[in-house]
Each structure stands twice: as C-alpha cells, then as structure tokens.
Amino acid sequence: MNLKTSTRQVDGVNIVDCSGRITLGEGSVILRDLVKDMLSKGQKKILLNLGDVNYIDSSGIGELVSAYTTVRNQGGELKLLNLTKKVHDLLQITKLYTVFDVKDDETSAVKAFR
Amino acid sequence: MFGPLTFPQQKVQTTESAWNGGGAIARQVSCDRISTISLKPLLMAGDRFSYRLDSTLETVDNAEQTASRIASESGFGEDEVMQIAMAVREAAVNAVLHGNAYDPDKKVELEFERTQAALVIVIRDQGKGMDLSKIPDPLAPENLLKTSGRGIFLIRSFMDEVEIHPSHTGTEVKLVKHVHGPAEGGKEDLQ
Hints:
The structure holds 2 protein chains of 2 kinds. Chain A has 4 helices and 5 strands; from the N terminus they run ββαβαβαβα. By secondary structure, chain A is α/β, with parallel strands linked by helices. Chain A has one domain (4-111): STAS domain (Transcription Regulator spoIIAA, 2-Layer Sandwich). Chain A has a 5-stranded mixed beta sheet with strand order 1-2-3-4-5. The mean pLDDT of chain A is 95. Chain B is of the alpha+beta class. Chain B has a domain at 48-178: Heat Shock Protein 90 (2-Layer Sandwich). Chain B contains 3 helices and 7 strands; from the N terminus they run βββααββαββ. Chain B has helices spanning 57-73, 78-99, 151-158, and strands at residues 10-16, 25-31, 48-54, 107-114, 118-124, 161-167, 170-178. In chain B, the strands form 2 sheets. Chain B has a 5-stranded antiparallel beta sheet with strand order 3-4-5-7-6, with helices on one face. In chain B, strand 6 and strand 7 (170-178) form a beta hairpin. The relative contact order of chain B is 0.14. Mean pLDDT of chain B is 80; it is low at 1-27, 29-40 and 183-191. The chains are: A alpha/beta, B alpha+beta. At the A-B interface, helix 2 and helix 3 of A face helix 2 and helix 3 of B.
C-alpha cells in the first residue's frame, strides 16, 4: 500500500498521520511534496506520526533525512512519532535513531516543540 | 483455531532459462494459489526461478514481492522474509536506477535458487558496472545526513553473504541467506 497522509494541528504543531509504505517512487514523492507544502505555508513544527508505516526502504530513509534537514534549515523542527518495530530497527542500524528526535507519546511530543 | 489449510497446487514444468541463451535448463514452479498457513517449506533444493525484467520502478516492486513469496515458501520466518525481500528490493533499485538508468533497452535479470542450505539470489544489470570505491560508508558521521547511499549497506546488513561483481557490461550481485542462520566465517565476500 502506498503512503497515505492526513494532517491535523494540535497546539500549533502540525501532525502528519502516515500509513503505508515510504519507498522509492510515489511514497517518497508524497512525503517530499507534503513537507514542501507545509513549509510554504509557514508550518514549521512538524510531527510525523509513523505508527501505521510498516515499511521504509533506503529511499524512504533518505526522504525522512531530507525532510528533517529541509525543515531544520528553515528554522523549523521535525520529530518522529510512534515508530513501528521495523522502522525503529532500520533507524537503529543506520545510526539515524539518535539523529531524529523520536517520540512515542503524542502529548509529550507536542509539548517538546519549542 | 485455524481454518482449513490450503496448499498450492504446484505445476512443475521444465522451461528454458530466459536470459542465458537457452543453454541451461531451469525448473520452474508456479502456484495457482498460495497458502497463508505453511506447515512446511514448499520449495525444495534445486528449485530455481529466473526472470528478465524491464528497467522500471514496477520491476523493483515485483522483485521485492517475488522475493518475499519465494523466501516464505523456502521456509524462512517472517523477519527473515522481510530482510530478504528488502535486500532484493535494494539490489533491484540499484540495477534499475544506477545500473541500467531506466534504459528501456536494458534488462534486469533476477534469479532465485533454493539449495539444500540456502536461498541464493542473483541480480544482474546491463549498466557500466558499479564503482565499489565510490560507495560511501553511510555510518560515517559526515554521511549520516546524506539522503542516499544506504542501499548496499542494508543489503549487507540483511543477508548472510553478499558478493558484488562489477564489470564493463554490468553488475552482478549475489545474495545468500542460509536456512539455518549464517555459516561460520566472514559475513560477506566483496569482490
């Protein structure tokens, strides 16, 4: 299943609920366009809820890194929420787990934004 | 607890391998339906599958799905099936994007062989040959935030043996997953 996203706002934080796969092709493009669109609207506090993302390939990992650096370079913050075990393990072996700010509770994640 | 078990009706036929000029004979097994509950491996040592695919994104998805099915029918557990499928996906991405560069005249060859002790997978492209010296270490601090360059690393992480053979007529990647875990010795043999 390709990536599906829906966005909502909680206390000024833009939460993106993602489900499906973030892989080379459509999934990566959807995420890239979404982040670009949010930044163009001045939405710089972004929380990616990956709770229903069951698969990410190396391209998807690259897209998460790209989103992270793009948001940060524009003075914003991007955090990850609710990693599945597969995604958690992938970020661990690629040493990205400590690069990203990873949260497992939405309320505390929202509060963690400055 | 479980519903009625259904097993695939296997059609065994002999067919010429698609890309070796017809020199070798491959045994091909096709299934009409796949059981969701497998009590035993469905593939046997000697079973071999070969495919010749276009250089498209669809090929990447097909290669992954095929690897997942064959790994499952070879008796691997869920985690190993995922690892094998992901390794094949990454190798297919390299073949389609970096090797053949989406050239419609160039094909990706994909081969699976179930041996007594392992599942052996070969992916070949028809590109200019991968330059192994240019593959960065994705774990190096200066590379952590790069947006690409993790495919080979993931392949090596997930498979028991990895051989990469670049040549001027293309790159051949051989992946091995042992049925009962990695054998003693080196994890990979990079050539």
